[in-house]
């Protein structure tokens, strides 16, 4: 999976740049008649350059190798875990979700030592709570 | 011209035990938070500013300057040991610092970073103290046309220097500019690409984007590798050779021209608002590599690479205060925080500051010089301790760093929306890094984007849309020619390396 990594990203950026120029920018940027530079000028120019560079990359790729797909899948798992954590925080608050999130991360890494688990699951969230709410007088998310 | 007695009075105000204590506290805090990936001195300064309300202006500003300077030294520790820069400024340091640490010389790498950082910082402080006003006037003479040309030159250099492909560098820079265009456009103030989310009207928050792309994406990468495999976040072999744990005078002296070049680049770029220490570090690194007799050794643990980047990024801190003190223009996020602290304490940065509050300004200069010596002293004693900060198991480092990033970004952006954006950019950063696109170029382009667009609009207004008037500015013409030359140079270099 060496040359195809650049070709894959090149195709993506070619399509992304064209989609931005023809579909997204016209629909999500307001047209303004006055002024020296229209709101669409910079995004349009940048989109076109991205598309051109994507095409160049397809034609002339480097020997870039993509990361191991298994590792990327594991990363996807942690992204889902963090997304669930943020969503849960919006419902229950940082105080309740942070220890569980810290425990889940440490557990999946493979941490089983009670001292480090205690420090990460209880100690660190407690320290953050004390620093933010007691010392700084700010609210936790 | 400021009276000499005011200069002396200012310095005598600074050199008191009371101020020394605040500088020391600031430096220790800065080095500590700089060593923890995902926090950094900027976040620490933002959190610390409310604590300084009850202090007199001089110790308050001295404390914040200490945090900023200490953070740059501390930021090199995770860059060297974990290849995870504690601050974006230290990203260039990781290029040679981490390979040196992997060779069993982590202390040599971090000490070289400390020495070159203090050297560059002291150089720029001396420049600040002696020639601040004339340099700022020179920077002020650069109009929007020259600023646009300067930014195009910076993009062309960075796109070619960082990474292995100019095309990918350009894509990363363009993506950064595209993301920077989210929010209201700088001329008409109409919403752009906000997709119905009015929280985005002021643009994507810099803390969310920067921490997501630089810290969380790296943590995600490290988490996937650590999955089911508990180990220390940092594992370096001890060679047993005492020379590998120190930097000899000969080694330090061999880097004198490298540090001088880095400090000069950092000072010049720091005096120009918007360019920043990350760009200075990479520019200095690239120039040192280009000038070296052994360029192949760079990226493999050459201490000159560390000296180049650290002397440049630290020199920016002092030089950033040149436009800030004389023009009231912050040159970086850190300077913007310092300017807000100035105003809280009744100082109005600008041309009249030296006349109205000259004693306080020279007191600040004294505190800055003091902070450099304290930085060196605390660094010498504390480096082993900061190494331990990042030597704890990955499980505790990464879970804690994630929680701190969540809280820090939520506080900086007033809510979980900023945290969600941070996660989105973490995913983008992870994918970009996986496919070999530079995150640093992206961040720099994102940071410079609004100013770049505004300068284009101002240039068009000044020239009535007649772009041929650019040719009336010799500085702009020279910078644009240099941009073209650098692109041609990098294309030829790429072609030659492919041919080999």
Q: How does this structure look, described?
A:
- The complex is a heterodimer of chains A (141) and B (500).
- With 141 residues, chain A is mainly alpha-helical.
- Chain A has two domains: 57 residues; 67 residues, no CATH class.
- In chain A, 76% of the residues lie in helices and 0% in strands.
- The longest helix of chain A has 26 residues.
- Chain B has 500 residues and is an all-alpha fold.
- Chain B has one domain.
- In chain B, 73% of the residues lie in helices and 1% in strands.
- Chain B is built from 20 helices and two strands.
- A two-stranded antiparallel ribbon of chain B has the order 1-2.
- Chain B is globular and about 60 Å long.
- The mean pLDDT of chain B is 80.
Main β sheet profile of chain B? 2 strands, antiparallel
Q: Whole-number radius of gyration of chain B?
A: 22 Å
**H/E element sequence of chain A:** HHHHH
Number of strands of chain B: 2
Q: DSSP strand (E) fraction of chain B?
A: under 5%
Q: How many separate domains make up the residues of chain B?
A: 1
**Sequence of secondary-structure elements of chain B:** HHHHHHHHEEHHHHHHHHHHHH
Tally of discrete structural domains of chain A: 2
* Uncertain segments of chain B: none
The first-to-last residue Cα distance of chain B is 59 Å
Summarize the structure.
The complex is a heterodimer of chains A (141) and B (500). By secondary structure, chain A is mainly alpha-helical.
Kindly list the characteristics that best describe this protein.
heterodimer, A: 141 residues, mainly alpha, 2 domains, B: 500 residues, two-stranded antiparallel ribbon, 20 helices, 2 strands
